[in-house]
Amino acid sequence: MANATVSENGHSNGHAGLSTPKAITDDLVSKHQKDGDLFWRVASVFGILLILGIIGFVMRLSSGVGDRAIWGYYAAVFAFILTTAQAAPMVAIAPRLAKAHWRRPISRVAELWSAVGLFNLLLFIPMLWILPPLTDGRRSLWFYDPGEVPSYSPHIWASAAMLGLVVLGVALLWVSALPDFAAIRDNAPDGWKKKWAGKLARGWVGTSGQWDMQHHRLGILGAFYFMMLVFVHFLISVDFLMTLVPGWIDSLFPITHAANALQAACATVVLTIWILRKYGGYEEYIGKDQIWGLGKLMFALSLLWFWFWFSSFNVMWYGKKPAEQAVINLMMTGPYLFVFMAVFVMNFLIPLWTMMWNPLRRSTWGPAIISVSVLIGTFLDRMRLYVAAYSVPGIGNSSIDKHSLELEHIPEAVTPGIADIFIMVGAVGGMIFVYLMASRLIPIMNFWEQKELLLYKVHRPFHRTEVMVLGKPE
Hints:
Helix content: 55-70%
Largest sheet: 3 strands, antiparallel
Strand order of the largest sheet: 1-3-2
Number of domains: 1
Distance between the termini: 8 Å
Strand content: under 5%
Order of helices and strands: EHHHHHHHHHHHHHHHHHEE
Shape: globular
Number of strands: 3
């Protein structure tokens, strides 16, 4: 062991009666095997919401894809899931690369959200129909020669990147769960979960070579997932958002779109672990260290949210170009003013001023409430951006010049219809439903990282109390 440290909370990770690897394995296997009535009632509710979303999609599809304005809310919920669920694995990747012990009980909770990427990949398919090819006169920020580059080139790259992100997320989840599949195979009672785990364990027995392989592959997959996440946000924010608004040229916005996802990812995981601690029976594993740690990250990312927003806003506001003023009017000061004000409060002011208050920040419920604010603010932000952009008339309108650098007419705010409400509720319900179903197949708590922690910690007396001393691997 090297660089021993003392944790803020000696028994933050629980394990009061789980001091051996066998005890941890037996406890977590039994928790994974349980399918309580509460779980299935909750899953049924979100399953019904998913069905409503499918009905809303069929209703919207009956109107065709020619009118882009009616698909703004659909694009917004797709971007919301990309910003929250598909960014959530970063909460496991970044602290793992930093060799932080506090993230061990929440690593699988965050990684499991990558399974929702399969659901969002299905939502992405209609987006390709809504966005016309370049040969139809669609505006583009790409430099291309129509005679050499396929008209669907941005569609192709965005589809390949989205597929790559989903594959990397599923691969990361599977590699991380290999030892846990083996534990279920060897310790669970006979049943379909034992058979499922035996097939996915792929002969894992825990040799030195297998552990070395897993350690390096987790690092490689995590690094590639981060790069692909940024790349996907870049492509989506450019081709499916910025190019739809004439005059919107902001070199910082794609990384702003990705940076906002990190704040939403922290909020997603904080709310998830709070629910697991409160209602899932994992209070012995998920302690204050995990909630405090993510709360600090969420506080820092709220400052980053303001920095990215102000950097782009200041350039457009100070430049005073008519095209830039039109973009500000459309997105912030015009028809979506109140939505933007709500986003500013929920994503910046509330996290900033509440997380500075120690009694709230150091509680287990405070960061969870703030995470709800961040998630609502993120949803409103995606709605503000995508609905506003999709309401701009397309090239098919004879009064629109594709070479125009200025939005001459600011469209009115688009209010959601019944189909839009069904789609939004169904998409969020489907996201949670997929996560719940994935947790029945893959343990939501990481077995092997809990057992590995026993090798790095020891309880020692310190004055009149007892603290947990942790060692960090080289």
